[in-house]
Amino acid sequence: MTIMDMTSHMASHFDDAIDTLKASSKELAQPLSDAVDLLFASLANDGKILACGNGGSAADAQHFIAELVGRFERDRLPLAGVALNTDTSIMTAVGNDYGFDAIFERQVLALGHAGDVLVAISTSGNSPNVMRSIEAAHDRDMSVIALTGKGGGSIAELLGDTDIHLCVPHDRTMRIQEVHIVLLHALCDGIDALLLGDTL
Ligand SMILES: O=C(CO)[C@@H](O)[C@H](O)[C@H](O)[C@H](O)COP(=O)(O)O
Ligand SMILES: [Zn+2]
């Protein structure tokens, strides 16, 4: 590839990311608004938010929870949340004793109560440990907000009427992850708007 080819190749990433954000905005603004209401109702009723994912989505899950427990853009009370992909002792113990597919399920069963919300992140919708976390959340009478892409994969089949599916209309993991971080920041902003008012 020549330097000029590389430059236009790099530019195409911006174009594709912009197109994906625009398509996502059309499809996801309404379910995203519903997701803000679901999260706010849970937090306002002493519920908590659990979040999980693998790889880049693990980073997204802990980024999101850090903004709940810490803060987003404005000072406010700390909000209850736990990222299930951060405790290496739990993940290695459960992974070693029960298998990698159980690492999130076991924590949802340990921590989850009716009224809590699970934010489950998988770009393919097919990661077995994330799928099993959703089944565990349902066992605990929790609602699920699933962030996926690629049509939603097997996770789309697992979701019920009280769950919310935010499926990015793209097939490449990186593009889907880029929109996921916009979705998670928008959720933080929506929660803060309900708590503090919508003027910065
Ligand atoms: O960040 C990336 C790719 O951009 C990778 O680390 C990626 O998250 C990993 O391959 C994950 O295991 C993919 O899992 P999933 O999104 O399909 O559930
Ligand atoms: Zn990545």
TrEMBL record:
Would the keyword Isomerase be found if you checked this record's keyword annotation?
A: yes
| Positions of substrate binding | 54-56, 67, 96-97, 122-124, 127, 177
What SUPFAM superfamilies does this protein's entry cite?
A: SIS domain
The record's subcellular locations are: Cytoplasm
What Gene Ontology cellular component terms go with this record? cytoplasm
Name this protein carries in UniProt: Phosphoheptose isomerase
Catalytic reactions on record = 2 D-sedoheptulose 7-phosphate = D-glycero-alpha-D-manno-heptose 7-phosphate + D-glycero-beta-D-manno-heptose 7-phosphate
Listed InterPro entries: GmhA/DiaA, Phosphoheptose_Isoase, SIS_dom, SIS_dom_sf, SIS_GmhA/DiaA_subfam
What domain of life is recorded for the organism? Bacteria
> Where along the chain is Zn(2+) bound?
63, 67, 177, 185
Sequence similarity: Belongs to the SIS family. GmhA subfamily.
Q: Which cofactor does it need?
A: Zn(2+)
Q: How is the cofactor bound?
A: Binds 1 zinc ion per subunit.
Q: Which residues form the SIS domain?
A: 39-200
Q: How does it assemble?
A: Homotetramer.
